[in-house]
Amino acid sequence: MVDGNGTSGGNSHQIVSAAARATVSCRKLRINPNNEVRPDNYEDLQLDFPNPVYKNLEKYLPPDMLVSNREERVRFMTDIMLSHLPSGERSKAQKHSDYRSKIVSNYQPLHRELYNLVPRLCFVPSFLKAINENTEDSFRSIISEASPGVFVFDMLLPSFCEMMLAEIDNFEKWVAETKFRIMRPNTMNKYGAVLDDFGLDTMLDKLMECFIRPISKVFFNDVGGASLDSHHGFVVEYGKDRDVDLGFHVDDSEVTLNVCLGNQFVGGELFFRGTRCEKHVNTATKSDEIFDYCHVPGQAVLHRGRHRHGARATTSGHRVNMLLWCRSSSFRELKRLQKDFSSWCGECSCEKREEKARTFDAIRKKYVKAVRAPQA
């Protein structure tokens, strides 16, 4: 069993200078949020952290920063956040920032319309209708729970899938021509690319915030579905001269979106084997947790990151999937303080039921003994 983990997910960072840290230290954030502030949207700017983080932090800005322009507010908030990173993390963030800057400044996109999410160009009408209504009933009308915790629905238009495939192919040609060494999506995939690294981070952030988070709030609220605030977006490729299969693992996410972009292929089924917390990640699979899913281009699979899964061999053709690992910083903080995950971990739930049964049996035996005891 392997814990899946990605390369530096979320958005890139820049190292903060000593002078900037000195400035930040002189201008402190509010202790309590100013709930009268209506947060701005910064997704059109070059950000070092996810857009939702800036929107949440804005309520804590000092009064003089609230009246400054958007760019100055972003610089101030970025400096604040970077100043709290350990020195090792700052160095790592700087290298990743430089890496992304080299790609974005040299790579010429094939389809620029992909880099700003235009819903009518991306999504099938039924998905858009459900999102616009934004109710549990509307979501359930288009989403089927194929297996406990595994939700399937039609999502992407064929034309969007084709554009994404062409963009990925264009990026890979640029990589080959320039001999640029790129970071792969995670430690398990040798092929594929991190979409955030060549400029699609803003588009994917909007996809998570406006489309995946509302659904996750309904179906995955127990793992921070309502508070998703960062992501790691990438594509993986399977087939001849590519990865063949993917071992049994869990994702470094609270909620995972997996969409097949297409091409002709045989095999590559996803196999699911139950959701587990870290303590129980290697425990046995129960019969009702076994589920296999066959990919359909444009169709999305949504599941908890801790839902154990893998991919069978793609025996012929070429398959490309887009994945979005959605994360919640607040849930991760809370999880550190928790010990009971029975609301979503299959093994914790089983242990809790067994403990209740033992407690009930002990009470029953005590009661029977009391009834049978001779009266004085």
List keywords for this structure.
376 residues, alpha+beta, Jelly Rolls, 2 domains, eight-stranded antiparallel beta sheet, five-stranded mixed beta sheet, disordered N terminus
How many angstroms separate the termini? Answer: 61 Å
Which residue ranges are poorly predicted, with pLDDT under 50 across at least 5 consecutive positions?
2-25
Largest sheet: 8 strands, antiparallel
Rg, rounded, reads 24 Å
The CATH class of the largest domain turns out to be Mainly Beta
Strand content: 15-25%
Total helical elements: 12
How is the CATH topology of the largest domain named? Jelly Rolls
The count of domains is: 2
Structure commentary:
With 376 residues, this protein is α+β, with helices and mostly antiparallel strands. The chain has two domains: 27-84, no CATH class; 120-336, q2cbj1_9rhob like domain (Jelly Rolls, Sandwich). The chain is built from twelve helices and 13 strands. The strands form two sheets. Strands 2, 3, 4, 5, 7, 8, 11 and 13 form an eight-stranded antiparallel beta sheet that branches. It has a five-stranded mixed beta sheet with strand order 1-6-12-9-10, with no helix packed on it. The protein is globular, with a radius of gyration of 24 Å. Residues 2-25 have low confidence and may be disordered.
